[in-house]
Design goal:
Length: 75
């Protein structure tokens, strides 16, 4: 799981290597890569587009899950 939490723009340089490794042969049995985006005031759809563009191999394999955090609910 990768957690991206920043109010600033993300520097995506080098992340394509992560995509190639996680979508590659050594991780062939990997069923999901979850990226939790705590986006504050960012547009989640725009963030999802950026993340998908940076991880095309995982997206193509259907193992990329981009979502917001799930916070526990206390009653």
């Amino acid at each position: 799981m990768l957690v991206l939490e920043s109010r600033e723009e993300t520097d995506w340089q080098g992340w394509n290597e992560v995509d190639n490794v996680l979508a590659g042969i050594k991780f062939g049995r990997l069923r999901e890569v979850a990226i939790v985006v705590d986006h504050y005031s960012r547009d989640l759809d725009m963030t999802r587009q950026h993340v998908t563009a940076q991880f095309p191999s995982m997206y193509d394999k259907g193992i990329l899950n981009i979502r917001e955090p799930i916070y526990p609910t206390y009653y």
